[in-house]
Specification:
The structure is a single chain. The protein has a single domain, classed as Aldolase class I (TIM Barrel, Alpha-Beta Barrel). Helix 9 links the parallel strand 7 and strand 8. The protein has ten helices and eight strands. Strands 1-2-3-4-5-6-7-8 form an eight-stranded parallel barrel, surrounded by six helices. By secondary structure, the protein is α/β, with parallel strands linked by helices. Bound molecules: 2-phosphoglycolic acid. The site of 2-phosphoglycolic acid has 13 residues, from strand 8.
């Protein structure tokens, strides 16, 4: 199994002062983590974050990017710009992007191709809603999102998929380790069927109310290779405990 990856998704939170405080605490605590660690602040704080984590083990990612490289796209941020300022990761297709900004699988696929071309490592989010789970469609929804997002994939060396059931995001409800493992095994089998994707080497993160007290049992599952952490990544001690749970 590859090294675990723990990613903090700060969403639309923070100020210069809180970013400095949070990263100051994390940089001094994360010495030789034994897991890969990345944090994804809002765009406006990325430059500050890259400087704050320089010469530490923490990498920086963005929460989204444009499918375009440059030009007349008001309000957009290109993956080339993100790489240029020192970002190495980008979250794509988060359910909040899909829900509030109408992002389709086709757009996620276009963003993924642009991100990979720019040198970023994508973290592609998939996950079903509560209604889809209750009507027995969770696996087919996730398979469709995967196949849709990876349709333009171009030699992604470090593919990362984040399974985030929509009903577990920010709700305090977590998929049980068994439910998450079952979906992760399904995701790996779908990846096996996509030409050019190395399903074994791909890292599958679980996201949705991951906390210090449930991370260890999630990481114990065979196909869970890390976590995408929202709310708990805004509290240094919580996030560091999740990193710690992956290190031992
Ligand atoms: P949460 O968010 O940990 O606050 O549930 C996870 C995410 O949306 O990535």
């Amino acid at each position: 199994m590859s090294q675990l990856l723990v990613v903090g998704n700060w969403k639309m939170n923070g100020s210069e002062a809180t970013v400095a405080a949070l990263l100051g605490e994390m940089v001094s605590a994360v010495q030789t983590p034994g897991v890969d660690v990345a944090i994804c602040p809002p765009y406006v704080h990325l430059g500050q974050a890259v400087k704050a984590v320089a010469s530490s083990f923490i990498a920086v990612g963005a929460q989204d990017c444009s499918s375009q490289t440059s030009g007349a796209y008001t309000g957009e941020v290109s993956p080339v710009m993100l790489f240029d300022i020192g970002c190495r990761w980008v979250i794509l297709g988060h359910s909040e992007r899909r829900q509030y900004h109408g992002e389709s699988d086709a757009l996620v696929a276009a963003k993924l191709a642009a991100a990979v071309e720019a040198g970023l490592s994508p973290i592609v989010c998939v996950g079903e809603t509560r209604e889809q789970r209750e009507s027995g469609k969770a696996e087919s929804v996730v398979a469709k999102q995967l196949v849709g997002a990876l349709r333009n994939h171009a030699g992604i060396e470090s593919l990362v998929i984040a399974y985030e059931p929509v009903w577990a995001i920010g709700t305090g409800l977590t998929a049980s380790p068994q439910e998450a493992q079952a979906m992760h095994a399904h995701i790996r089998s779908v990846l096996e069927g996509i030409a050019g994707v190395d399903a074994v080497a791909s890292r599958l993160l679980y996201g949705g109310s991951v906390k210090a007290d449930n991370a260890r049992e999630l990481f114990a599952e065979e196909d869970i290779d890390g976590a995408l952490v929202g709310g708990a990544s805004l509290v240094a001690s919580e996030f560091l405990s999740i990193v710690g749970a992956g290190s031992t």
